[in-house]
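In response to a reviewer's request, we include the raw inputs and outputs for one of the modeled complexes. The two entities were modeled together in a single run.
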Amino acid sequence: MKMSQHPLVMIGLVAAVTLAGRALPTWTLSLATIAASNALIALGIVVLARTGNVSFGQGLFFAAGGYGVALIANAWGLTDAVAQVIVGAACGGLLGLVIGPLIARYSGIFFGMLTLALSMVFYGALVKSTALGGSDGFNVGRPSLFGMSFTDPREADFMLYAVSVIVTGFAGIAATILFRSEFGLASLAVRENNLRVEYLGLSANRIISINFLIAAIFAGASGAFALMAQRHIDPQFAYWTTSGEFVFVAVLAGNQSVAAVFVASMALELVRSFSNLYLPNTWQLVLGVFLLGVILFLPHGIGSLWIRDRRKRRISATAPLTAERGAAP
Amino acid sequence: MNFFLTIILDGLIQASWLFIVALGLTLVFGVLKILNIAHGSFYALGAYIAATAVTMVAARGLPPSVGFVAMLLSVTLIASAVGLLLERGLLKMFYGRDEVVLLLVTYAVFLILEDVTKLIWGVNPIYATQPYELFGNLEFAGLYYVGYDLVLIPISAMVGFAIWFGLNRTVIGKIVLAVIHNEEMSVSMGVRVNRVYAIAFAFGVLLAALAGALTAPKISMQPGLSSDVIILSFAIVVIGGLGSVEGAAVGAILVGLARAASVHLMPQAELFMIYLIMAAVLMFRPEGLFKRETARRI
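The model returned the following structure tokens for the whole complex.
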């Protein structure tokens, strides 16, 4: 086991990043909160992508988490940040539990299309539901933590930052452990050849369903964070371009490293806010060019900058060579 | 009785332009195996170009019929050029990659085009209503319709027939079908697959832009147009079966009718209905209504 992947080291890292928030200027703080929240949902997509399936409809669970938390907050006055994250994760998870097994039979482009369709069904329903504010959505109150309410906006921002970094950090640690576990390796095997996995006595559908559930839980929790950060929710949460952005982060990160997801998410938020500042009408253009560049030059994502799959490199380094040698006269 | 007739006519009018958009999407998927998210952007591009052409013609004091012809010509020229340029300059670099990666490449193109249209035409709504009065108003079984809307139905049928004829009754079409069916075999028989790819993609872009031009006089052009259209055309090709011309026609009619019916009966359920149909089709016939079963796991 590598030193940098030891759970204690990772917990230390999360604590250090949380405390570093004290020193950050206010604008970076809210930026980092959104980045951490987006990293959480993108992490879910990476978890699922290890089975070879990309979900283009994570906005469904994102919105389910957000709306679930918002409705409960307004109806019962639940304002505690940690409780809201748990409620969001539960809403996303419940939905994922229902949809996952149904959708696990599909793969590739059909999987993507079906997830997209489901999120758009939800979007369509949300836009037209007057009880939920229609396309305008509705507002929720400021979150509190363990009975403390924060009137100073700086303190409130830091609280949200701390909760989102800690939750996302622990999700990342859990994902690292999961990736190395027997289950995580079996997920990779499903991507390579699902038929062989079945021959080994494992159920590929079950593996995909469980990974789907994990992704849905992460997305629901992420929806709760987005709600707390904006204190407002609208159907845009479920629109397909929202889901597209999360897939964007996941592709940027690649599926080799959990840390890459956080780096990618932060990079996206920085690119977005800087181009918002200097090129206010063309940030999508910048984003598109950025995405094309990453796909072209870093096909395995940002993570491939510092993590190299040693086994793969050895194969790819020798295989073409021997082939060439064999062909040479 | 009239009520149902209204729904059916409205549905067919919707279906007529949706069919042209979906045809382009399904053609590109059939040949290049790319699900093109940027397809809606080409629709919006066509609509914007048409609006510019119509406004320029109207500013010179020429009649709207000239504007109608000018808009079709300019869109045809620009869209084919854009299509060829994009395929040769960009998409070519990503062939052989995973189909999900290609999906993301087109997503990036969508993001870029979204801002390019904003840069050129701004964010305020643009109108090009002059050709809309071209065919006057018609009375049909006691209902009044704008002639332009009704003319769209035969135009779309003609486009569909032309594509079907081109694919099934000409040599070039047969070659394209061969590439759709088995690319490796076509290569070994001497087909220049690269050229087929470029032509098919340019044609797909052209069809989307043409539909945009034809609807331009009916609507207001503003940001967000492309993402709404792509969502509808996705639903159509998935319902009909990716890569199938007949499927696109049936899908378009189904979606058009569903839209018209929900607008008249249950306006809350419009988008919801369409995606519910799509999800149901995917659940029970994931290859779409019109596609033969293949052996691979979907």
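As requested, we also summarize the result in words. Residues 153-180 of chain A form the longest helix (28 residues). Strands of chain A lie at 138-139, 232-233.
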